[in-house]
Amino acid sequence: MVCEKCEKKLGKVITPDPWKSGARNTTEGGGRKVNENKALTASKNRFNPYTSKFETCRICRQKVHQVGSHYCQACAYKKGICAMCGKKMLSTKNYRQSSA
C-alpha cells in the first residue's frame, strides 16, 4: 500500500504497458515522458545489488526490497499505513485480519 504522494516515487518500466487503463508507465496519463533518456532518469529508482546494507522494516526488522520503503508490505497492510512514508491510509478497526 502506497499513498498518492509516494506513488510518484515508484519506479517506472521502460516499455509502455499494452493494458493502458491502470498502468503507470503510459504517456497518456502523464506517467512517462516522451523521448526521455532512461539511462539518466532510471538510476535513482533502480535497485542496486552492490549496496552493502538493505533497508529493514521499522516494525518487524525484516528486509525490505522496495527502493525507498521503510515498512515491509505485510506490516503496511496489517497497520493500514503507507509502505514508504508511514502515513495512515485506512482504519483497520473493523477488519478481521490474520496474524501472518
UniProtKB/TrEMBL annotation:
UniProt cross-references to InterPro entries, sorted A to Z: PDZ-binding_CRIPT
GO cellular component terms listed in the entry, alphabetical order: cytoplasm; spliceosomal complex
Location, primary (coarse class): cytoplasm
The keyword Cytoplasm belongs to this UniProt entry's keyword annotation: yes
Pfam families hit by this protein: Cript
Region (Disordered): 17-40
Residues annotated as transmembrane: none
Keyword set, alphabetical order: Cytoplasm, mRNA processing, mRNA splicing, Spliceosome
Record localization: Cytoplasm
BP terms from Gene Ontology: mRNA processing; RNA splicing
Stored PANTHER family: CYSTEINE-RICH PDZ-BINDING PROTEIN (PTHR11805)
Protein family according to the UniProt entry: Belongs to the CRIPT family.
UniProt name for this protein: Cysteine-rich PDZ-binding protein
Origin species: Cryptolaemus montrouzieri
Taxonomy of the source species: Eukaryota, Metazoa, Ecdysozoa, Arthropoda, Hexapoda
